């Protein structure tokens, strides 16, 4: 079959999602079954997969969905525990004391604290931690989810101690003779016939960090501007743009140390250390009054009575005082400190705890006599286990009673059950899509077929499109790591074919894969479930889509400018596109800042 036609067919499940979930705003519980049956139908009748293969991939998806539901349950249980104990009331007051301005709060919590959680754990955990914390502080559930999803970009490539680079790119590139020869010719040590080696991955990580740092500098400004546009009383970008100095300062406070750490220590620590350094700098600056608005210019959401119905979720955050009415700020924050400590302890191999937790592993190979297997599912290593352990510890630390804690468990089970239907179709669709190789038709699996069609059309302009392919992989799979595993070898090969440095193309893949988390369906479902916002996933993606397009286009343009600078001069198409994006954003900001009332309400 023609490469372009095969590519178009591969795109059909994603087109179904775009039309019904995003365009028509169907809930995921209705849209994702259609996407699943589209992918399964293509697999059976176009790719000519065996029925066993499709059913095995579907069952694998159900198993993966159950692990996601376990994480969701743990996150909701922790939120309900903190609410019942009165800790959320104290934490809310603490953030109000730092700054009552919601724009400042969202940058500190979503951008900096969220980046730290991403660096420690990855796999969507920041949404499970930061999003409910924002709701607990009085943010509309929709605003919290949108903000939490947008920051799922810059820190993601170095999430879970560098897993998307070390495991995703490392696995995707290992075992290929052409890459081994390239590394040998480049004189980079550490490579073997079966592994590209850490020095090579560290080199790619350095390039990834540079691309992220340049592109990600505007992400905090995107967060606050979209928040004030969609959830402010004035429905205006202006209220967010007015704190552009603080937003860029907060971005650089994280991204500058992030790049330095990537070059000195490697892929494990940029997001963790960059965010911690950024937190220390930004919180100190806020307390000192640096770049923060005057008291009369502080911004808040409109009165709750004026919130639109789509803003709120079914999880209601109540202002319980708990049994410990005089709880200290330190005591209230102890559960989150425990999460941070446990995430670090369980993710650093040298400490020995990671290996112990991973020793309990459940796997199922050759499901239904197919080539599909689940790999190792490690229940003790999942973030959900940490959330549950911390919740139980909080029960004793905050001297809660059984009645309140039982109420929290009941509410958590109810919320988790509502998330089950959309996830039980979303993840199987993903697995059928990813496991579509080996059919009688002899076609490459669907994501590769799609990428090959785009590459054929793009030609030398591929660097601009490479980030979108990486983002597409994460959008479907819900994981930068899986996207990198799927496309890194393909991206490297395209780089060689068009005659540019292929390591930059792989770096663009990793950056695009990170940005894809902004719009990833099952991450949106999971984040929405934590705050009871199920059924509104398409609305969330519509609001986060501009941030993804900016991220993929900007980083792709910068990548094009870099890889073609030696042959097409520094002033090339990529440079012009990147400059155009920046100037377009500046003109947009100046236009609306100059308007007396910003953008009119729709």
Biggest sheet features:
none
Mean pLDDT across all amino acids: 90
What is the string of SSEs from the N terminus onward? HHHHHHHHHHHHHHHHHHHHHHHHHH
Q: Tally of extended strands?
A: 0
Tell me the span between the first and last alpha carbons. Answer: 47 Å
Amount of helix: over 70%
SS summary, helix count? 26
Low-confidence stretches: none
The class by helix and strand makeup works out as: mainly alpha
How would you describe the shape? globular
Strand composition percent: under 5%
Radius of gyration: 23 Å
Set out the fold topology.
Layout: H1 3-23, H2 28-45, H3 51-85, H4 87-98, H5 102-120, H6 125-136, H7 141-150, H8 159-173, H9 177-186, H10 198-216, H11 219-231, H12 238-241, H13 244-264, H14 270-287, H15 329-347, H16 353-358, H17 383-397, H18 402-434, H19 446-458, H20 462-477, H21 480-498, H22 502-515, H23 521-530, H24 537-563, H25 565-568, H26 573-594
